[in-house]
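Protocol step 6 of 9: fold each sequence in the batch and record its C-alpha cells directly after the sequence line. For illustration, a two-sequence batch is reproduced in full.

Sequence one:
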Amino acid sequence: MQVDALTYPYPSRRSVVYAERGMVATSQPLAAQAGLEVLRRGGNAIDAAVAAAACLTVVEPTSNGIGADAFAIIYHQGKLYGLNASGPAPLSLTAEHMRSAGHVTMPRFGLAPVTVPGAPAAWAALMERFGRLGLEAALAPAIEYARDGYPLSPVLGKYWAAAQRAYARALQGPVHESFLATFMPGGRAPRIGEKWRSPGHAATLEAIARTGARDFYEGELAQRIAAFCKQHGGYLSEEDLASFAPEWVEPLGVSYRGYDVWELPPNGQGVVALQTLQILKQLGPDLGAGERFTHLQIEALKLAFADGLQVITDPKTMAVSASALLDETYARQRAALIGEEAGVPFPGSPPKGGTVYLATADRDGSMVSFIQSNYMGFGAGVVIPDTGISLQNRGHTFSLDATHANYLEPGKRTYHTIISGFLTKDGEAVGPFGVMGGYMQPQGHVQVVMNMLDLGMNPQAALDAPRWQWHEGRKVEVERGIPEHVAQALARRGHEVTVALDSGGFGRGQIILRDAQGILAGGTEPRTDGQIAAW
C-alpha cells in the first residue's frame, strides 16, 4: 500500500510521522519511548508492545493496571495471530450470590465485579512465543517509572482528578483503603506536573518479570491476592488464578474497499465493527459524503450493535456464531432496513451457526495491535496492599437476568468492550489500529477505517477527524468539530443530536501503517497525551 497516497485535505492537528526502523504509538509519551527503547536495544515489535503495555500500567493507571485484561493481534513472519487474555468470573461467583446480596445489576466497585486478571499472562505469552529480549528487559522501563516516579501529563491529570471526585463518593470501607492510599496519596489525586510513584507496583512488576508471570498466578502474589479477597468477602481464589491461561485465537476478518479488516472473535465486541462494515458494503461502493455518509454509518452501526449486545458473550455459550453475524446474505437483510430516516435498532435473526491501546512495528515486518484495560477508569477501586495491583471490574458487564446471553455464571468470560484492529491487503500486513473507550470502540474503529479507506485520509487525519457516538435509540452525540450544517441535517433525518462539550468520551486511538517500500506512517490521538516514538 502506498501510504503517501492516503492524503486528504483535512486540517490535521498533528503531522503524520514517518520512519523505517521501528515505531511505537501509545496514549502516553513515556510508554511510547519505553517501547522505542526496547526496539533500539535489539527487540522486535512484540518486545516493544509488552514494554509499552507494562509501562502504561504505571504512567496511565486511570485506564489500566496489572490487574487488567488484554487482547492482541500480532503479525509475525507473514502470519496473523490473535491472543485473548480476558479472565473469567471466579468459580465461586454466582448470580444467586449477587441477588441474595441485594443486587439487581452487577456492582461497579468492590470485589464482586472482579474477574481473573489476564494482562500479566498476556505479556508472558507474547514474550515466550515471539519476543527476543525476555520479560525482564521488556518490563525494566515500567519498573523504573514505578520505583522512581514521573510527573503527570495533562490529560492523565484531568482523568485522575475526575476519578478522585467519582471514587471519593463511592469508595467506603476497609476494602478500598489501599486503593485510596496508592492513587490518592494525602487524600487527593496528584496534580498535572506533580510526581507520583508506586514502589509496590515496581516490586510486583519485578516478580512478574523474574518468574514469567508465574508468581502472579501460582506464587506469593497469587496468595496475597486470594487472601485479600477472602478477608474482605470477595470471590477470586488461588484456584481461579492458577487455572487461568490466555487463549490463542484466529482473528476474524471482512473484505472492505480492497483491504481486509481484522478483529478478534468474541467475547470481545470487535465483530460489531466488522458487521457494520459488512452491512455498509451492501449499500454499494459510493456512500456519498457529508451528512448522508454519516447517517449510513450510524444506521449500520446501530443494527450491528443490536445484534452484538443480544448475543456476544463467552463463545462457549453463544447461541449464534460470530461468523454468522458476518454472513453476506444476512448483511444484505440488515442493510435493507436502512432508510433515509433515523431508525430504532432491533436484533435480527442471524443464520445459526476506560482502556489503553498501543501499536508497534519493527524493521523486520512484525507489527502488534494491543489493548488492555481495568474497565471504567481505575476499575474496581481495589488495590492489593503494597503491590500496586489495581483489580479490574470487568464483571460489571455481566447480566443477572437468566434469559440474557451474558448471564453471570462461574468460570464464564463476559462481553468485553476492549478490541484491537488490524488491516491487511493481499495477505500482507498494512498495519494495526485501535480506538479505546468502552462501547465507543467499535464505533471508533468503523470511523477511522472508513476515514482512511473511503475518504482517503492519512493515519493522523483519520484520528483527528471529528467523531460521532451512538448511545441508544435515535440518540447521537457529536463532537464540536462536526460542521453545524451536518449536525442539523442529521437532526432533520430524525437523529436526536447533541453536541458534546468535552471530547473525552469519543475514544483515543493509534494507527501505524506500512507501505510497499517498508516505510511506516503513524498517527496518534489528539484527544489524549499520545505520542509516536519512531526510529
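Sequence two, same batch, same settings:
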Amino acid sequence: MKLLLPIAALMACSVTGFAQSGEDLFKSACASCHEGGMDRAPARAALREFSAERVLQAVETGAMVSMASRYSAVQRRTIAEFVTGKTLSDKLVDLPSPEAMCKASPEPDFSKVSWNGWGQGTSNARFQTAANAGLSATNVPKLKVKWAFGFPGEQSVMAQATVVGGRLFIGSPGGKVYSLDTATGCVHWWMQAGSAVRNAVRIENVGGVFMAFFGDQSGNVYAVDAATGKQVWKVKADDSPVARVTGSIAFNAGKLYVPIASGEEVASTGPGYECCKFRGSITALDAATGKQVWKTYSIEETPKPTKKNAAGTQLYGPSGAPIWSSPTIDTRRNAIYATTGNNYSDPPTRGSNAFLAMDLDTGKLLWSRQMTEQDAYVSACRLPDKTNCPDSNGPDFDFSSGPILVDLGNGRRALVAGQKSGMVHAINPDQQGEVLWQTRVGKGGTMGGVQWGSASDGTNVYVANSDIKRIMLTYSTSTDADPLQGGGMFALRISDGKQVWSAPPAKCGTRARCSPAQSAAVTAIPGVAFSGSVDGHMRGYSTRDGKVIWDFDTQREYKTVNGVPGRGGSIDGPGPVISGGMLFMGSGYVGAGGAPGNVLLGLSVDGK
C-alpha cells in the first residue's frame, strides 16, 4: 500500500456538487490540495505515474476507500482517468444484462405478504413468525448461499430488502430499484430513481393495484406499479434542499407516512454554511395521488437568524431533530409514533432525541418524551475546524432506531427503542410517554449505543450494541474503524428491562477495515436473533441463552447471477429479511471506516 498512500489527499476534499468532468472535479474538490503543496498530496505529474486501474482499486477497495466513499461510482472512475491521464480498460456497465433478466415473469400474487417494509408489521418488531420464516433454530446452522446479486460499481448495500409475492424489492446507492425473483435472483424489472434509495420498499394495494412505495436521498417519494416497475407518481416530500428519506415509509388506510431526515448535519461543516434551517417531520401523503394530507414538524418553531459565527456567517435556529427511522402505527389509539435525532444548531429544543406521538388523521402532536436534553451537534464538532459547532456541542445521542410497540399483558403496552447513548428505553404510549424502564447496553457515542434497530418476539427485546470507534485519518477528514472497540448482543425482558443474557463481541484479528461493532438492525424468528457486524459476519444467537448457533462470514468474492463482480464487506444499516425458508442480506458498508462490498445474498438450507 505504500505506493497508494500519496493519493490520500486526492480524496480528502468533499465535492460540493456533481461535476461532469474530471477537470471540474479536480478544480472544485482537489486542486487546493494537489496544487497547494499540501503534505502527502503529490502534484498531478506524480499521479500520472499510476495506472487508472491502480487508482480505481485504491479508492474503491484499497487504502483510500474512506476518502472515496463520498463519490459516486461514475465520479470515482472519472477521477481515476483524469489524474492518471489514462483510460480504464473496462467501462462501468450498470444496466442489467439480458442474461440477468428473468426468462419468464408470471403474475405475482402480492396478497401473500412475506416481509413488507422495514419492521415486518405496523409494530416494527422485526420479528418473523415460524410459518412465514420457514426456518427454525434447528436448521439455521445449515444456511448457505443459494445466489448472489451484485450492485454494479457500488461500495455499500444500504437498503433492506422487501419480500412480497415471490419477489424481492431493493434499492441501491446508485438510485436503481430492482425487483428480483426470490428463488433465483434474476431481475423482473428495474427503474432509476433520482438519487440513492436506502429505505425498504413498501408494497400496498391501492385502488386494486399493488404499488411499490419508497423515497430517495433527495427527499422524493415514488409510487410505481409493483408488477412492472412503471412509475405512477413522484413527489417532493420536503422543500429543504438537504432533505432525504432514509427511514422506510409506513402505510395505513390509504395514507403513506414518510419520515424526513436530512444531510445538513454533514453539509454544515464549512464555516461559510448558514447553519441550520432544516427541521425533521412526518409527512402524510395520499397513497393514490401523492398529494400531501398533512405535515408535522419535530420542531414547531421556524428557524430564525440567531447570531453570526467566527467567520461572519449568519446562523439560524432551532433546527434538526430529523426522523431517521420507520414510524410505528397504533390503530388502537389512532396514532403514529416516531423517534427523532439531535438538533443541529442552538437553541436546543424539546422535540429532539425524543419519542413523538401524532394523530394518524390530522398529524396533531399528541405528546412527546425527550430522552436527552441540550443536544445540538453537527459534524464540525468532531473536525479540526469547529466554527459551526453549536455551543451545546453534542453529545449527539439521537435516535436512529424506530420504536417497537409491544404488548405487556393485562391491557398494558410499551414503546421500546434503543438510543445512541447506549440506553434502551421503554415508555407507556397510553400515558403520555411515561418512562417504564431504562437499561444500558453500551457506552454510547456519535455512532455508539443502539444504531439501526432491535427486534422483539413479545417476551424479550434483542439489542445489538454498536459503540463503533472512528479513528480520524491524519491526512483527511475521513475515518477508519477501530478494530478493538464496539459490539455485543443483549436480550432484555420487555416487562421490566432486566437483562436475560448478553453475548460478548467477536474479535477482528488482523482483518483490514474491521470493527466488532454491531450497528445493523436485529432480526428475530422463534428461537434465533440475527445480528450483523462491521467485521462482515452475520451471526444467529439462541434466544434462550445467547449462544452463537450460526456464524457466516460474508467477506469473500461471489459469482453473481447478474454477472457483476461481487464481493462482501461490512454489515451495517439494514438487518436480514427472512421469508419462505430463505434469508436475504446485503454485505458491504464503508461508512465509519467499514469494508466495501456490493452483494445481496440469498441463503437457504438447500443452497449451492
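Proceed to step 7 once all outputs are recorded. Observation for sequence two: The longest strand covers residues 255-262.
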